[in-house]
Specification:
Blueprint (H helix, E strand, L loop, with lengths): L1 H31 L11 E2 L4 H38 L5 H48 L7 E10 L2 E11 L2 E7 L10 E4 L4 E2 L4 E2 L1 H21 L5 E6 L4 E4 L6 E3 L16 H15 E3 L11
Parallel strand pairs: 4-8, 5-9, 8-10
Antiparallel strand pairs: 1-11, 2-3, 3-4, 5-6, 6-7
Helix pairs in contact: 2-3
Length: 300
């Protein structure tokens, strides 16, 4: 009987040994960096799609969690059943088997449904990240024209929490760019703007237009209050990879991510002093990425 008990505890002993080994390795790694610090003295600027990248990483952790449940829960329950059968006292074996099967099937099915939703969401976020990166890289070329370009501007105040994908500051004005990634059909790839709606080949959308206008309005009010003088912000919507057909010209500029120099065709003019004030305020908000190689000393 004693030997059977020892055999039953062998897997637990192996698991504890591995756990202690990993813990010791992590602590030794942390100790090896104790006498070093990062050469960087301030936080980094946001890159295109940083907030999406963080959400994708979080989704990856959730997907791994549900995958572990689907792959290992049936084996865990089977092991629990065998342990109960050989080391316990099972009075109604058929009923116990039925309960284990019901529990396993229920949890696995629910986990698979959750996995499907998470995978679809991650795919949509990845498409959005690709498109934000492509538009951001194109907008960065405007810095050769003397523009200031910022990405992933965070907004957190009261009950509002969102981000403005890209902001361009130039002598021709301030532009708030909202990027929307939309997969194209194999044949037609034209989106028509009629002044009210975006008409894609098999669906219509209005929310991206309203979102771009809301972002521009909020940014205009925030900058005006921050720099102490009126700042007008132009709403821009980017739909990368699509051919844009406009039936009307109004307040919102829509483009497919190419030729961002067309943003600078406006007749507005900002003074260099105002450009510096605006850029300073934007940089303070966008410079919020902690260097990851070394933890910063919070006491300073």
């Amino acid at each position: 009987m004693t030997s059977q008990i020892l055999v039953a505890f062998i897997p637990l002993a192996i698991f504890l040994c591995l756990l202690i080994s990993v813990f010791c390795l992590v602590q030794a790694y942390k100790f090896s960096k104790k006498d070093r610090k990062s050469p960087l003295t301030k936080q980094l600027l946001n890159s295109p799609g940083d907030s999406l990248r963080q959400q994708i990483e979080k989704l990856g952790e959730d997907i791994d969690y549900y995958l572990m449940i689907v792959l290992f829960l049936p084996f865990f329950l089977y092991t629990a059943y065998l342990t109960q059968k050989y080391y316990g006292n099972v009075k109604n074996e058929d009923f116990v088997i039925f309960i284990y099967i019901i529990v396993a099937l229920t949890v696995v099915v629910l986990s698979l449904v959750k996995l499907w939703k998470l995978l679809k969401t991650r795919h949509a976020y990845r498409l959005g990240l690709d498109c934000e990166t492509a538009v951001g890289q194109g907008l960065n070329q405007l810095m050769l024209e003397g523009c200031r370009v910022f990405h992933d501007f965070p907004v957190e105040e009261f009950n509002k929490k969102f981000n403005i994908d890209h902001i361009v500051v130039s002598s021709k004005g301030v532009f708030a760019i909202e990027t929307k990634g939309r997969a194209k059909p194999l044949e037609e790839s034209t989106v028509v703007y009629d002044g009210k709606m975006l008409r894609f080949p098999s669906w219509t959308e209005k929310e991206p237009l309203e979102q771009a206008r809301r972002n521009a309005k909020w940014l205009s009010e925030w900058l005006s209050n921050t720099v102490g003088e009126n700042v007008s912000v132009n709403p821009v919507l980017a739909i990368p990879g699509w051919y844009i057909a406009r039936e009307i010209t109004d307040d919102i500029f829509i483009f497919n991510g190419k030729n961002p120099q067309n943003l600078l065709l406006k007749n507005d003019h900002l003074s260099e002093t105002l450009i510096k004030k605006i850029s300073y305020q934007l940089e303070q908000k966008c410079r919020n990425i902690e260097p990851s190689a070394y933890q910063q000393d919070k006491r300073k």
